[in-house]
């Protein structure tokens, strides 16, 4: 999910769509950052403002009623929490 948080995000989203692809990858552009505000209000989040540069991982059994549950792993920033992201992906892929 891409949002206009930093200048040039639309260009970065376009570039990512061209370089990061595959059957498991879907890119979305959210010009109003509505998704970031929703996630900030409904998921673990320790910053003010919309959620961005954050990942959430869910397994195949997760359901989405009022919010996706259960969260397998999450982190902010993606690069700063890359070990947690990798551990969560390893758990999902084994």
Describe the secondary-structure layout.
Blueprint: H1 9-19, H2 34-42, E1 54-57, E2 63-64, E3 68-69, E4 73-76, H3 82-93
Antiparallel strand pairs: 1-4, 2-3
Quickly give the structural class.
alpha+beta
- Output the strand order for the largest sheet: 1-4
Order of helices and strands: HHEEEEH
- Provide the low-confidence segments as ranges: none
N-to-C CA distance: 25 Å
Query: What is the approximate shape?
Result: globular
Number of separate domains: 1
What is the total tally of β strands?
A: 4
Radius of gyration from CA coordinates: 14 Å
Instruction: Average the pLDDT over all residues and give the rounded result.
Output: 87
Main β-sheet, in a few words?
2 strands, antiparallel
Describe the structure.
The structure is a single chain. The chain is an alpha+beta fold and 94 residues long. It is 34% helix and 13% strand. The protein has helices at residues 9-19, 34-42, 82-93; strands at 54-57, 63-64, 68-69, 73-76. The strands form two sheets. It has a two-stranded antiparallel sheet. Strands 2-3 form a two-stranded antiparallel sheet. The protein is globular and about 35 Å long. It starts with 8 loop residues before the first helix and ends with a helix. The mean pLDDT is 87.
